[in-house]
Amino acid sequence: MSTIQQETLAAILRRLLQNKLINLQMQRGELTIVVNAEDILGVSKVLRDDSALMFDTLIDLCGIDFLTYGDDLSVKYDLKDRRFAVIYHLLSIERNQRLRVRVLAENNEFPVVHSVTEVWPAANWFEREAFDLYGIVFADHPDLRRILTDYGFIGNPFRKDFPITGHVEMRYDEQQRRVIYQPVSIEPREITPLVIREDYYGDSESS
């Protein structure tokens, strides 16, 4: 998107969204807007339906955990101590324009964002993935279940405080003839790479 197109789109967004638009950023040819979690459904309908925008396609939706961002990045992106966010990547086929929307969940302990499945049905499985991996709850989702982990799985693997090894492991028990859960048997260890090089490695001549 050219600079002129960005500026034109930014002006339209400011006019249509007004006080619902918290922030607007133009970087590297990409436009990002930030809106409140409580406004995402209404904003989504405007982005899709207004003739000046027509963002009819949701390309992607993902969660983010800002736990380890640190104070500098928190100030830079105006996170205000919010830990979880949902990112929407939109495409207007009619106008050949793209837009990124960021929503910060209000509650770090129980992050909730309204579902946009009624606006973009493609959000269904994307929201289930963010729910599964980050624990972000999407209000009024038609079928909010885990999609990648097992139904009995405990925790959210993409949260930055989730252990790499997980909490439990699964194995097939011959006596019980079923899959069982048990505590993780992997012992944490520091991996030190072993590098073996031949004599005169990297030299053009060995003398």
UniProtKB/TrEMBL annotation:
Catalytic activity, reaction form: a quinone + NADH + 5 H(+)(in) = a quinol + NAD(+) + 4 H(+)(out)
Keywords: Cell membrane, Membrane, NAD, Quinone, Translocase, Transport, Ubiquinone
Alphabetical list of SUPFAM superfamilies matching this protein: Nqo5-like
Transmembrane segments: none
Membrane topology: Peripheral membrane protein
GO cellular component: plasma membrane
EC number: 7.1.1.-
Domain named NADH:ubiquinone oxidoreductase 30kDa subunit: residues: 33-167
Main location: membrane
Homology family: Belongs to the complex I 30 kDa subunit family.
Cited function: NDH-1 shuttles electrons from NADH, via FMN and iron-sulfur (Fe-S) centers, to quinones in the respiratory chain. The immediate electron acceptor for the enzyme in this species is believed to be ubiquinone. Couples the redox reaction to proton translocation (for every two electrons transferred, four hydrogen ions are translocated across the cytoplasmic membrane), and thus conserves the redox energy in a proton gradient.
Protein name: NADH-quinone oxidoreductase subunit C
Record organism: Nitrosomonas ureae
